[in-house]
């Protein structure tokens, strides 16, 4: 019987440069709770997830003040300079035979339904996969504008096969650890877990999710996250 133990890994060690706030964005409050608390609430309420490893920065002064700081399912560790360093640090605490469900602290609006859909699909296929949305915008590729005063269009991309990667991303702990390690040795920049597995020749599954699973990145994302959390019944406006 395959091991179906799921450990969530939540990278929360970033400083949120693009948010331009003194507080790291995962600690910004929306309504009564911080972004990280909503994210953890979503994961804590899924019985399929046995443990949550939260990866924080060495300088973090905020996690201990959260309502969930002493939750028995939560284990803390310290992250690194990049997101993949932080995920790797979390993976070091997980059992090799478990499944890792990596979810950004900055995605508080993910729905239970979408997380469950990912888990169901990955188990049914016995293959790692990620939540993603189909690209609906017309996507332009720019000329290399290092030499130009303004960006200019080089071409329009065919969006037929284009997806925007989200999280959670779910892989066997051992595989993910090995792939991130290999990619790092070759100095490959990784922006998500799937790209590490792709680097090792894998073809992770794409599981379509709702568009409310936004990554809170810039200031204008906050009111949007608030609206989605309200619609999901997490806050009152
Ligand atoms: N993250 C992390 N360790 C890092 C960098 C990022 O754990 N060294 C986490 C962030 O806390 C976030 C998730 O990875 O939950 C996604 O990264 P991103 O949205 O890029 O967050 P930041 O890196 O904090 O933001 P920015 O890139 O604007 O600085
Ligand atoms: Mg970042």
Question: What is this structure, in a nutshell?
Answer:
The chain is an alpha/beta fold and 237 residues long. Helix content is 27%, strand content 23%.
Describe the protein's architecture and organization.
A hairpin with a 2-residue loop joins strand 2 (29-30) and strand 3 (33-34). This protein has helices spanning 35-44, 83-91, 112-125, 173-185, 193-199, 221-231, and strands at residues 6-12, 29-30, 33-34, 49-56, 74-78, 99-102, 129-134, 140-142, 153-156, 163-172, 205-208. It is an alpha/beta fold and 237 residues long. Bound molecules: cytidine-5'-triphosphate and magnesium ion.
Task: Give keywords.
seven-stranded mixed β-sheet; globular; Spore Coat Polysaccharide Biosynthesis Protein SpsA, Chain A; alpha/beta; binds cytidine-5'-triphosphate; 11 strands; 237 residues; binds magnesium ion; two-stranded antiparallel sheet; 27% helix; 6 helices
SSE diagram, text form:
Elements: E1 6-12, E2 29-30, E3 33-34, H1 35-44, E4 49-56, E5 74-78, H2 83-91, E6 99-102, H3 112-125, E7 129-134, E8 140-142, E9 153-156, E10 163-172, H4 173-185, H5 193-199, E11 205-208, H6 221-231
Parallel strand pairs: 1-4, 1-6, 4-5, 7-11
Antiparallel strand pairs: 2-3, 6-10, 7-10, 8-9
Helix pairs in contact: 4-5
Magnesium ion binds next to loops.
Q: How large, in whole angstroms, is the Cα Rg?
A: 18 Å
Q: What name does CATH use for the topology?
A: Spore Coat Polysaccharide Biosynthesis Protein SpsA, Chain A
Bound molecules: cytidine-5'-triphosphate, magnesium ion
CATH architecture: Alpha-Beta Complex
The helix/strand series, from N terminus to C terminus, equals EEEHEEHEHEEEEHHEH
Uncertain spans: none
Q: How far from one another are the termini?
A: 47 Å
The tally of domains stands at: 1
CATH homologous superfamily caption: Spore Coat Polysaccharide Biosynthesis Protein SpsA, Chain A
Strand percentage, roughly?
15-25%
Query: How would the global form be characterised?
Result: globular
